[in-house]
Each structure stands twice: as C-alpha cells, then as structure tokens.
UniProtKB/TrEMBL annotation:
Name assigned to this protein: Flavodoxin-like domain-containing protein
Transmembrane annotation, as ranges: none
Alphabetical list of PROSITE patterns matching this protein: FLAVODOXIN_LIKE (PS50902)
InterPro entries per UniProt: Flavodoxin/NO_synth (IPR008254), Flavoprotein-like_sf (IPR029039)
Domain Flavodoxin-like residues, every copy: 3-158
Top-level taxon of the source organism: Bacteria
One MF term in the entry's GO annotations: FMN binding
C-alpha cells in the first residue's frame, strides 16, 4: 500500500493522531493550511455546514503516486472542514482507496462521517474504512486525558493501516 496521510488540524487534535501514525508507520503526511483565520466558531461551523471551500497555503493536490489516501479532519457543525472540502474538490480522487477519519466534540459522529463519505464518493474516491474520535475542545478542561486518547487513536489507526498493507 502506497499511502498518504492528508490532514487539517486547528486545535492540534488531528495533528496529534497524525504524529503518532507517522511515528509508528513512517507514512508521509501532507498538512492542509487554511489561509483564513478560523477564530469565529459560528462562522467556521457555517462554512463547514454549507460545504464551503477555502484557499489553502501552498496547496499540493497531486496524489498520483499514491493508491490510498487517509483523510483526517475535524468535524465542524457535523461536516468536514472547508480545508478538507477544498482538497477533496481539487485532488484527483478517482479510483483511489480512501480511509476517512473525523475528529469532533462527540466520540461518535456517524452523520458527519456519512456526509464526509458522500462528498468523497462524489469526487470518485472509493471508501475503504472510517473512524471517528473525540478531539480537544478548547473550551473544556481534561486536556491530559484527551491527549492520551488521541495518541491511542493514532496507535489504533496504525494497526489498521499496517494490517491492510
């Protein structure tokens, strides 16, 4: 399996998972960097809910040398982020195996992952698996335990990807 981790992380939750997967698997990663500041939670959720794209800093949409993409994104208002929407629309996903990871305020985001799945299928990706995890909510405490949970999520994903290799 020639795989690439593609991710967006605002609060660091997704980045923590990616860091653990990379450490354990050696898979390359591509970070999506939104040029728009996302300080306004309401505005960010609105953009995600309506499937709005955004401009990315130094985007690289070329995925031609990979057969599998692992797309990791926060879940905002029950939807993937604008940065991930942009990547999905611009990268050529046709025929690619896609594993989706959503990280949100709730531990299980079934409706959100289903929306994510529909978007990726619309652009030609073939879903091979999904996972959802609970991320860091900057408005709440208990960061220590949550970071440990995110690291464990990275270990779980590594096991999944290595089994399918």
């Amino acid at each position: 399996m020639k795989a690439l981790l593609v991710y967006y992380s605002l609060t660091g939750s997704v980045k923590e998972i990616v860091k653990t997967v990379q450490k354990n698997s050696g898979l390359p990663a591509r970070e999506l960097i939104d040029t728009k500041r996302r300080d306004n939670v309401l505005g960010a959720g609105f953009a995600a809910f309506f499937g709005i794209s955004t401009k990315l800093k130094d985007p690289n949409y070329d995925v031609s040398k990979y057969d599998t993409l692992i797309l990791l994104t926060p879940i905002w208002a029950g939807c993937p982020t604008p940065a991930m929407n942009t990547f999905i629309r611009r990268a050529d996903l046709r025929g690619k195996k896609i594993f989706l990871v959503g990280v949100g305020a709730a531990p299980n985001n079934k409706r959100a992952i289903e929306k994510f799945r529909r978007i990726v299928r619309k652009f030609g990706g073939r879903i091979i698996g999904t996972r959802t995890y609970r991320g860091i909510n900057p408005m709440r405490k208990k960061f220590q335990q949550r970071w440990k949970d995110l690291e464990e999520a990275g270990h779980e994903l590594t096991r999944i990807f290595m089994e399918n290799d």
